[in-house]
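Example record used in the benchmark description.
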Amino acid sequence: MTEPEGDAGRAAADLVASHVLDVADFPQPGIVFKDLTPLFADGAAFARAIDAIVERYDKGSFDVVAGIEARGFMIGAGVALAAGVGFVPVRKAGKLPRTALAATYALEYGEATLEVHADAFVAGQRVLVVDDVLATGGTAEATMGLVERAGGTPVGFSVLLELAFLHGRERLRGFPVQALLTV
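Model output (structure tokens):
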């Protein structure tokens, strides 16, 4: 994985910044939700964001992409398609039809449980985990653990936006973290 440098890194950050909207008091009072749906709705911008994620990794450095429900599905599927690899969904509890592994974790505004199929990964398969935003790191940490428990080897965590003031990256020590935009 390479960190954004020069014009390419600035362009990716500017792209995300120009398509994010702040929504006050969502999903509860005191939270400022970072709405990335304008980026998803702009086909050219969304394609550039996907390409910016893929370009930060060496060709062949991951075998599959795991996307975290729900916005991570859109980003992860795009990254997987652009990289020519498969996609594995990490779902909310009770949504997967076969035997699943689960992890419960704290959010910045509650608690949640994620699941992945127990047989989602071939032993040692290199997995790039993708989501939209890195906030407190609970979702990311739980997902990295699920990937490992299911036999995969997490090689990185990529997001469009990192909220650095919430220190989520600290919960992912030992894993490379890549954000197109950090605020």
